[in-house]
Amino acid sequence: MKQFYSLLMALPIALTLSAARAQGSPQAETLGTNAAASAVRRPAMVRLGVGESVNGSGDYSMLKTFIEYAPQVGRHCRLGSRLAYIGGSQPSDFGYGFVVPRSYRALNLEQEVYWLPFGLNKTVEFSLGAGAFVGYSKQKGFSQGGFNTADLNGNQSFSYVPANEKGFNVGYIGSLNVDFALNAARTWRLGGRLALQNDTRANILPGGQFQLSRAL
């Protein structure tokens, strides 16, 4: 997982340097003119994303996948409306065959506003996002657990206090995004995002996902 996040963190730097070189060439200016015209015909992006999200206590990683509709607003903004699923499980092993199940599942409607300081429809799009989400989540875990004092025969018993929650929640989300054009028309893009979200159940979920985008 560390290699996954290292790759995502290195992606913005590499792609931004590539964009700086490409956008200074005559070819980039020609492509920029064509892209500006294309923006009128293709004002929105559809994105599919998949990657990881870490549970609130940072104990284990989970799958996060989403589909997003992202229309452009002006020359430096996009709106991102997503349907996202987050889920995963990892039991806590106390040894001697005693295992406590832990899991998290959530289905969220997420809304972000992306600010693109260098503009839209570039070879490399860099954006900062902020927004909110509402969803339904179900979490299983425990607040405490361990072995009790041995009895007269030297046997120990194990016990734990369950901490299970479910219900609707709301929260905020922030992200750093980079998308690299895969073709000259800039209709296909591949990129990544690093995000942090927090909900009313105090579940802080940092994570990173790869995303594939298609201009409409």
In terms of structural class, how would the helical and strand content be classed? alpha+beta
Q: In the CATH classification, which architecture applies?
A: Beta Barrel
Total number of helices:
2
- Per CATH, the class reads Mainly Beta
Beta-strand content: over 45%
Bin the helical content. 10-25%
What is the CA–CA distance across the termini? 33 Å
According to CATH, what is the topology? Answer: Porin
Main beta sheet: strand number and arrangement? 8 strands, antiparallel, barrel
Number of domains: 1
Order of helices and strands: HHEEEEEEEEEEEE
Radius of gyration: 22 Å
Strand order of the largest sheet: 1-2-3-6-7-10-11-12
Low-confidence stretches: 1-5, 7-20, 28-32, 35-40
Mean pLDDT, to the nearest integer, reads: 81
The overall strand count is 12
Given the C-alpha coordinates, what overall shape results? elongated
Signal peptide: 1-22
Protein name: Outer membrane protein beta-barrel domain-containing protein
Keywords: Signal
Q: What is the strand and helix layout of this fold?
A:
Elements (H helix, E strand, L loop, with lengths): L1 H21 L3 H16 L2 E11 L6 E13 L3 E13 L2 E4 L2 E3 L2 E13 L8 E17 L1 E6 L10 E5 L2 E17 L6 E12 L4 E12 L1
Antiparallel strand pairs: 1-2, 1-12, 2-3, 3-6, 4-5, 6-7, 7-10, 8-9, 10-11, 11-12
How would you describe this protein?
The model is unreliable at 1-5, 7-20, 28-32 and 35-40 (pLDDT under 50). The protein has one domain (2-136, 167-215): Porin (Beta Barrel). The chain is elongated. The chain has an eight-stranded antiparallel beta barrel. It has a two-stranded antiparallel sheet with strand order 4-5. The chain has a two-stranded antiparallel sheet with strand order 8-9. With 216 residues, it is an alpha+beta fold. It has two helices and twelve strands, in the order H-H-E-E-E-E-E-E-E-E-E-E-E-E. Keywords: Signal. This is Outer membrane protein beta-barrel domain-containing protein. Residues 1-22 form the signal peptide. It comes from Hymenobacter lapidarius.
